[in-house]
């Protein structure tokens, strides 16, 4: 259940020495057609890595034959030499696969501000090209891992004969616009690039864009969707979007549960909002409140910190008419204490936090994690 | 060097049992005149504690004779009974001091969402009224402490014969609008409430509002300035504002160095900005980036995380023409690597982080702290 689940794709994951551990660090996914329609969404961070700058250009025509992804270095803030490395990577893939460089997308992930070893990277492209296989998706999923503890994969098969498969990596710097990650999704459905683009934007908006693990927006986010058309089936766009959203949500939940150092997955459901934007703003303000997140780590149902976080938003609500429920226990009614906080059991991995703003009919689900000793530890020692 | 440094003030700090430790938990500061001019600024959090709601009303006429502050409970999200407690506290102070309740400001700090013990609080008001003394400022400074490890006090004496004194508390939930804190500042200068208000807003804008320890905005912030006029001197407003700014900065720096669990005080100086707002926005985005803050805790000069944080702002700048210097070592020039990161020594308590946006002549200083195991520990165990 990976990018090689749909027909018309090959993939590989190899080790080329970018990671000092010797682990897999270069992935290649190739669309063997007949179609080469593709779409991608990118980080909204204004500081963008070299591969993002390259891929934005390359996807401009809605077509891509291959995507090459490396871990072991973000190739961001590496100046002109860094961009040349990205360009050379795309050229090398193109040469090995007899494509144009403009048909090759590039992604990188790892430490910012260090040059990638170009020689190793290009040698990796050569071995990955040789290793391409119709069942290579699992290796590709492993090769894009950084601090991830497990590879993330998902799939969805439609009775009409088409399928969607995906791989993802991401454990830190998870915040919307996009949630910070690399994702490759493939399908053998036959859809043009405009449809793919609409479906991808619709699906990411309510999945990856709602994942906000630590509020830190990456410079290297990219979610790419490639369609081979190999099933010969052209699905209804709405059906396809629904299936794609399901695959994206599966991957987003896997990213959440593998977030660096996290001991809780927090599902913040905001209801009763005056608009979708309000619901999302309220959810995010809670998801980014370090005091609340540290309290959850301590299994402390500190709902006052939830209300203090909501109070910083511009959403429509009355601070003294908000209800807060944690794991089914209504701890706050109309902005005042309700059930005693010690009735809330926060020992399960998942915390369901429900916030009812009581002013409208809109809602949103925001996914986040708690703030733990392990988060601090992992992120205080990352580059050293 | 406290609120009783200027002439015309008495103060007291007593223990009334709001803190289970038995430590001082109720402070009273009284302006004995002749003037009763006052000004105050409040949290911009829309979720406001009961004492904030009270004090906003009471200060409406620019006059205050007394301020009573309790630790051991925030009296926020405690509904109508909570507001009655605040009201009763002001009434009790008024009765003991033969004032009107509208001349009494109230502040509370501690856990949100729990009722204060009104009986203990009112008994505390009685003992504090009895204990009022011209040298009671130190006790008052101690009585407002929560997780503070030391009391915070400051003063400034002018050669013309007037003085300013202040006390502050705040260690967590430190973020602008205001930085989360209770502050009482007194002066024996003779200034009307409109002048006090202008001076206070000018001083807090560049001091407390630039302190952003953990990005979490409180529900209980209040900075109050009371003028007795007892020196008989009416200073020039500009001179007074400069002295007041100095006192506020002294207190802000004390709050920063006592921030919960912090092991570094980070001074983020943003220069070359197109506007003051841009400089502040950039500084705050870095101050709120958990990945950067965790890296500083690990003595890791991870400047890539600085640039990634700047990229999330709307400030005018070119991501590939930003310079970053840490403790005097230029690690990034024009958005690319400069000096090796291992030349930076992050073992001192203070980290001077200089960011040059190179597009204008505006600048700002933002004060923050690192993200540490102790921060997580203190905030995961606060209410339990």
From TrEMBL, chains A, B:
Protein name: Arginine biosynthesis bifunctional protein ArgJ
Membrane as UniProt keyword: no
Record-marked site positions (Involved in the stabilization of negative charge on the oxyanion by the formation of the oxyanion hole): 109-110
Reactions mediated catalytically: N(2)-acetyl-L-ornithine + L-glutamate = N-acetyl-L-glutamate + L-ornithine; L-glutamate + acetyl-CoA = N-acetyl-L-glutamate + CoA + H(+)
Organism listed in the record: Microcella alkaliphila
Enzyme class, first EC level, given as a word: transferase
Subunit field text: Heterotetramer of two alpha and two beta chains.
Pathway annotation from the record: Amino-acid biosynthesis; L-arginine biosynthesis; N(2)-acetyl-L-ornithine from L-glutamate: step 1/4; Amino-acid biosynthesis; L-arginine biosynthesis; L-ornithine and N-acetyl-L-glutamate from L-glutamate and N(2)-acetyl-L-ornithine (cyclic): step 1/1
Upper taxonomic lineage: Bacteria, Bacillati, Actinomycetota, Actinomycetes, Micrococcales
